[in-house]
Amino acid sequence: MTSDSPDPSRRKDLRVSHAERDAVVERLREAAGEGRLDLDELESRVGLALTAKTYGDLEALTADLPPQPPPRQEPPLVLKGGLNGASRTGRWRVPEHITADGGLGGVKIDFTRADCPLPEVRVEAHGQAAGVTIVVPDGWMVETSGFDPAIGGLKDKTDHDPLPGTPLIRLTGNGGSAGVVVRHPNRWERRKLERNPPNTSLG
Q: Is the residue at 83 inside a domain?
């Protein structure tokens, strides 16, 4: 019986990609920053990594370095409308995952002044009794194919013409009885932005 999977014992002889070379270069630079490699070692190993042809070539360059710990998972941002409502506006740092429950008071999430270095953000919104409003800057794309409108529905007022390098908001959840609205800033919000332009650098 034949298999298309490569023999693990031959992995060291398989050819590597540009992305895999770049990943090793990044690991070497991190190791130098940690004090594990001096500058001469870094320069030598980076040169070898950039010209490596096989996995064996790359693995030899990091064999004496400890494995990297898995990336720390940032907890999701949870907003619950409750009786008085909830909002996240102004300057704030965007996590990978946001959950918004409209409750009886509603929830507003305003990304127009937020610091968002992420290429994609998952927003799980449940309209419930009072609804959820999501405000995104011009040029941001919102993907709504995974959202269930339910009774309250979904009003997507974004222009679906993303600018290069802007985040994607991937919306899931359901409209509940009050629905979810996704839009760009309204006239009043735009006036506030013009008077005080957003500064997304939070340091």
A: yes
Q: Which residues, other chains included, contact 70 with Cβ-Cβ below 8 Å and sequence gap of 6+?
A: none
Cα–Cα nearest to 25, from 48, 56, 55: 48
Q: How confident is the model at residue 202 (pLDDT cuts 50, 70, 90)?
A: very low
> Residue 54 carries which side chain, given as an amino acid letter?
T
Containing 55, the helix (H) or strand (E) segment is helix 55-62
The predicted model scores a pTM of 0.65
Give the tens place of pLDDT for each residue, 46-95. Answer: 999 999 999 999 999 999 999 877 767 778 999 999 999 999 999 999 99
Q: How far, CA to CA in Å, does 99 sit from each of 86, 123, 126? A: 12, 6, 8
In terms of Cα–Cα distance, which of 203, 154, 198 is closest to 174?
Answer: 154
In a domain, 85, yes or no: yes
The whole-number average pLDDT for the span 103-130 is: 95
3-state SS, residue 167: coil
Q: In terms of residue numbers, what domain contains 24? A: 13-62
Query: Torsion-angle region of residue 128: left (phi > 0), alpha (psi -120 to 50) or beta?
Result: left
